[in-house]
């Protein structure tokens, strides 16, 4: 049975008119239940992550600022969320959700977090709706506990995983792979182990052929024993921040290919949702739900 990390705290109450589609987390959960793809037994509620694992990739000063709500105003502005105790609790719970998913994936092949993919979180700062780097913390956890030897991060959010790239630039056991929009945020890119930049307006054929050509060779080259997949749906043509033109079907084919590669290579994979900013919530929720549906159909 597909196991999915989800907690009601994933949906943080934001000021009226805030541009982040926070409601999507609750709607993904409700839609998967409503349509019968999942039952309550598919979902588990994480607890807050132990600071020990957070401090493995984030600086002590930054963690202290988060926990004492003393983050500098300029950084709060770059993060984009009002700084509250509820927000901090949410970040710690989401991050533990991704850690929990790694343990389940090692048993079942796959596990998924309804939130996460917070790849703009750097060791010493947050930005772009990201505060703790859930994939970074979970990767550190796996390495520190000796469960894996080599990790491949497959980041297919439309925005470069700049925080993750910076976090592991001197860690050869974590290979960071990002496929993103060349002209999109962040303006100043970091250097992943492999960056593939796609032009504005990229549609299904170029996007999928790029992935088909790159990912199998990369798995063969890196020889990972664990995969993280950031499955942002901001590559959609409907996305107001994405600058790409991928269809919902193309996005679904992307997910299928990533899962098929994991299955063929017998590699456990943990999935974090990443971004999605289409004006219609339906477009965001449907594209995200397709990722869960695809995993469920291929693995179970």
In short:
It is built from 10 helices and 8 strands.
Largest sheet, spatial ordering of strands: 2-1-3-8-7-4-5-6
Largest sheet: 8 strands, parallel
Q: Give the overall shape.
A: globular
Task: List how many beta strands DSSP finds.
Answer: 8
Q: Number of DSSP helices?
A: 10
Q: What is the C-alpha radius of gyration, as a whole number of Å?
A: 17 Å
Helical content band: 40-55%
Can you describe this structure?
With 300 residues, the protein is α/β, with parallel strands linked by helices. The protein is built from ten helices and eight strands. An eight-stranded parallel β-sheet has the order 2-1-3-8-7-4-5-6, with helices on both faces. β4, α7 and β5 form a beta-alpha-beta unit. α1 packs across α10, α5 packs across α6 and α8 packs parallel to α9. The protein is globular, with a radius of gyration of 17 Å.
Write the layout of secondary structure elements.
Layout lengths: L3 E2 L17 H13 L7 E2 L6 H4 L5 H8 L5 H7 L5 H24 L1 E4 L20 H11 L6 E5 L6 H6 L6 E8 L12 E5 L5 H19 L3 E5 L17 H17 L4 E4 L8 H19 L1
Parallel strand pairs: 1-2, 1-3, 3-8, 4-5, 4-7, 5-6, 7-8
Helix pairs in contact: 1-10, 5-6, 8-9, 9-10
